[in-house]
Design brief:
The protein is of the alpha/beta class and about 350 residues long. Helices cover about 45% and strands about 15% of the residues. The protein contains 12 helices and 10 strands. The protein has an 8-stranded mixed sheet with strand order 3-2-1-4-7-9-8-10. Strands 5-6 form a two-stranded antiparallel sheet. Helix 1 (about 10-20) packs across helix 12 and helix 3 (about 60-75) runs parallel beside helix 8. It starts with 10 loop residues before the first helix and ends with a helix.
Length: about 350
């Protein structure tokens, strides 16, 4: 797999601007008390994780799972040595989770995860930034606003930052599902959901293997980029490579469509070179056969460390008996999330597009 590096140095500074632009519920526009609570909870998590890391010789992210488990159960987990257990028990007396909002919990966990991922060497130890996740949540809300209930699936959930933020936007009955092959990320995702009081059913498996899952209304995914090594299994996909390894990100698009209802929507974060790379012609033909292209939104350059790492938001709808191509797909180049005026102008145009476009 090829690692795609977000520019995490700009993430936190972008959050308040996006809260204001999207007028999100539970956002506080930079409320000092909320910011203080985030810092307090983050520092608690960081100190507890550091103790575990040092005393048990665990990587930071693995230590963070232990700290989050202790926070959720308000008790030191079994199996720890006496020093760590004592320090965690003492630390728990200094924090009251009941006084912390969901937003505080989410942002504090995100900061701790970002710290752990900064030093991680594994390609898949990355996180979808909150600004990008919030924008996808806004799009998800728009696409499903006529539905009373929504079933959502993230086939490559990581720590579930993207999925949990999308769930915050869907103010209706939801059923959420997620898959993650990395055990550490899966544990972080589960604890993240529990602490935010979100119900998510997780699959611990290769996301290109069959799921015991009925088709969903909405798929959201930040696609990992690279080759899929299991050629024998890839042979069962339409998007298998004619020669050599298939692209995992291509197969994930096919897999996601397979588990989407007719007329359902898919929102992907994709590499900007998706339709310019090897095997792109085959992918394009596959999408034309099975889906309608609803939109393509270029993410701002400031979100990435370099030109080579740029990504876009790609919106599809699975074809069905009652679906049709949109006359004019939603196309836009998003400005920096720190540019409030430009961001608000783009959102006005996107809202107008949804009002004028028949997605029935």
């Amino acid at each position: 797999m090829i690692p795609f590096f977000w520019n995490f140095g700009t993430i936190i500074s972008n959050l308040i601007v996006l809260y204001k632009s999207l007028k999100l519920p539970n956002s506080n526009g930079g409320n000092k008390m909320e910011d203080t609570n985030v810092v307090e909870l983050y520092e608690w998590l960081d100190e507890a994780t550091t103790v575990i890391q040092q005393q048990m010789d665990e990587p930071y992210l693995e230590g963070l799972t232990i700290a989050l488990e202790a926070l959720f159960y308000n008790d030191a987990p079994e199996g720890l040595n006496d020093i760590v257990s004592k320090k965690l028990t003492e630390a728990l007396e200094e924090i009251d989770l009941e006084t912390k909002s969901t937003l505080t919990i989410r942002k504090a966990i995100q900061l701790a995860v970002l710290k752990g991922m900064k030093d991680a060497t594994q390609y898949n130890h990355m996180i979808t930034p909150e600004t990008i996740s919030m924008f996808i949540g806004y799009l998800a809300e728009k696409l499903t606003e006529k539905q009373d209930t929504v079933r959502v699936f993230d086939p490559v959930s990581g720590t579930a930052n993207l999925l949990l933020i999308v769930l915050d936007h869907l103010k209706k009955d939801t059923a959420a599902y997620a898959s993650e092959i990395d055990a550490t990320l899966l544990q972080l995702a589960l604890l993240n959901a529990n602490l935010q009081k979100k119900r998510v059913e997780y699959f611990h498996q290769d996301s290109l293997r069959p799921f015991l899952l009925d088709p969903v209304d909405l798929v959201v995914a930040d696609l990992p980029v690279g080759y899929y090594p299991d050629d024998a299994h890839a042979a069962g996909f339409e998007l298998n490579a004619d020669e050599g390894h298939a692209f995992a990100h291509h197969l994930l698009i096919e897999q996601s469509l397979h588990y989407t209802k007719e007329g359902g929507y898919l929102i992907f974060v994709i590499p900007e070179f998706l339709f310019q790379s090897e095997q792109a012609d085959k992918l394009h033909a596959f999408i034309q056969k099975h889906a309608h292209i609803i939109g393509l939104l270029q993410l701002p350059d400031t979100a990435f460390q370099s030109e080579d790492h740029k990504k876009s938001i790609f919106i599809l709808r699975k074809k069905g008996e009652d679906t049709k191509d949109v006359q004019q797909p939603l196309l836009a180049m998003l400005p920096s999330f720190k540019d409030t005026g430009a961001m608000e102008n783009v959102l006005v145009k996107i809202n107008q597009w949804f009002e004028q476009t028949d997605l029935a």
